[in-house]
TrEMBL record:
SMART domains: AAA. It comes from Streptococcus pneumoniae. Keywords: ATP-binding, Hydrolase, Nucleotide-binding, Transport. This is Nitrate/sulfonate/bicarbonate ABC transporter ATP-binding protein. Residues 4-229 form the ABC transporter domain. It is an enzyme of class 3 (hydrolase). GO terms for molecular function: ATP binding; ATP hydrolysis activity. Its EC number is 3.6.3.25. It comes from the Bacteria.
């Protein structure tokens, strides 16, 4: 089932065209990345999908509903954890906002903490956590808003490479276990290759989808060798292979 579908979506700020004729889709259970340099409209595109910006031209369909608002879980690069609240206090906020009883909110949070491998930090404060652990907490809080359509906007980009690799493996495990569907913004080719089933290349001004790459990993060939081939293809699409 197609969870996210964009048809001929264009957007402008005043006279400045930001996006032009964007067509893409994400099916249930997929991780799809939008890869491109800064300034091509990636965050504007996410704000349109999330309903933060009004659709000016074209169509956005989420889970069968056209141009809906608030139907996605949106996570940014900055974790936005409240420093004066514990991990538990942070992650129950979405449930309290939804008017769930506090005792029930805590019970539900405790149940999911184990899935996210966060039980040991339940009563810690954000300043006591590593960057990678903070992002895990932020992702859990995002999940508890209740939407299984995830938009991840450079969510792992502030982390060091070792932490990022660890978090990628952790996220894919969680994604599969909870049957999520995710659209990811990234400027990292390595991250797109590590996480994605498919990659859309966004470039130019106004931003346009210039290519779609389906990742098909062969068990008969070394994965790092295959990565090099995909990287060359992506660099060529971005015009950076000179």
């Amino acid at each position: 089932m197609t969870e996210i579908r964009l048809e001929n979506v264009s957007y402008a700020y005043g006279q400045e065209r930001i996006l032009e004729d964007i067509n893409l889709q994400v099916t249930s259970g997929e991780v799809v990345s939008i890869l491109g340099p800064s300034g091509v409209g990636k965050t504007t595109l996410f704000n349109l999908i999330a309903g933060i910006l009004e659709v000016q031209s074209g169509k956005i369909v989420l889970d069968g509903e056209e141009n809906p608002k608030g139907r996605v879980s949106y996570m940014l690069q900055k974790d936005l954890l409240l420093e004066h609240k514990t991990v538990l206090g942070n992650i129950i906020l979405p449930l309290l906002i939804q008017k769930v009883d506090k005792a029930e909110s805590i019970a539900r949070a405790d149940e999911i903490l184990a899935t996210f491998q966060l039980t040991t930090v339940r009563d810690k404060y954000p300043h006591e956590l590593s960057g990678g652990m903070r992002q895990r907490v932020a992702l859990l809080r995002t999940y508890l808003f209740g939407d299984k359509l995830f938009l991840l906007d450079e969510a792992f980009s502030a982390l060091d490479e070792m932490t990022k690799m660890e978090l990628h493996a952790w996220y894919l495990e969680i994604h599969k276990q909870l049957q999520l569907t995710a659209l990811i913004i990234t400027h990292s080719i390595e991250e797109a290759l590590n996480l994605s089933d498919r990659i859309y290349i966004l470039k130019n001004r106004p931003g346009q989808i210039v290519s779609e790459i389906k990742l098909d990993w062969s068990e008969d060939e070394d994965k790092e060798v295959q990565k090099i081939a995909y990287k060359r293809q992506i660099l060529a699409e971005l015009g950076l292979d000179k």
